[in-house]
Amino acid sequence: INRMDRDKLVELYKKYELQKEDVYKHQHYVIITRQGIEKIQAKENIIINYEVVRCEPKFAVMKAIAYITTKPNIIIETFGSALKGDSYKDGNCNSFYIAEMAEKRCKSRAILQLTGFYKLGVFGEDESDDFKKK
To answer: Contact at 8 Å (CB) between 76 and 63?
Structure first.
């Protein structure tokens, strides 16, 4: 991460009052925990509406339509999906809570896009089982 992006990240961490436990480094990415995502959403008063695109026993896709209440003209639409598999070759989720996982993934994406984290290469821990803290 370059110096300018690092400074922007530090500024965002302070703005959203993120603590050490809300953020961690994972191989190539900076990851924000579920708790950190919730803090950001609450601080910005982000409203999210969900649409079920597809929901089956082993596969789900959700669409999130989100905006910050103080900036209602900026709307983000993004998707989250989950595919239950026995391994990463078979799917991207090992949980049977497929719809819930798809919802958490699109929620993280929407919040991080609205607040500028996404363009700095920051992801939510729910976006991939591989992003979970070891």
So the answer is: no
The DSSP H or E segment spanning 63 is strand 59-68
Radius of gyration of the chain, Cα coordinates, nearest whole angstrom: 15
Residue-wise pLDDT tens digits, 50-65: 999 999 989 999 999 9
- The 8-class DSSP code of residue 19 comes to -
Nearest to 112 by CA among 124, 126, 128, 127: 124
What confidence tier does 122 reach under pLDDT thresholds 50, 70, 90? very high
First to last CA, the chain: 22
d(Cα 18, Cα 103) in Å, to the nearest integer?
23
93 φ, ψ (degrees, to nearest 5): -155, 140
Distance, in Å, from the CA atom of 17 to the CA atom of 76, rounded to the nearest integer, reads 23
Question: Whole-prediction pTM value?
Answer: 0.88
Q: What is the 3-state secondary structure (H, E, C) of 70-112?
A: CEEEEEEEEEEEEEECCCCCCCCECCCCHHHHHHHHHHHHHHH
Residue 101 CA, distance from chain mean position: 11
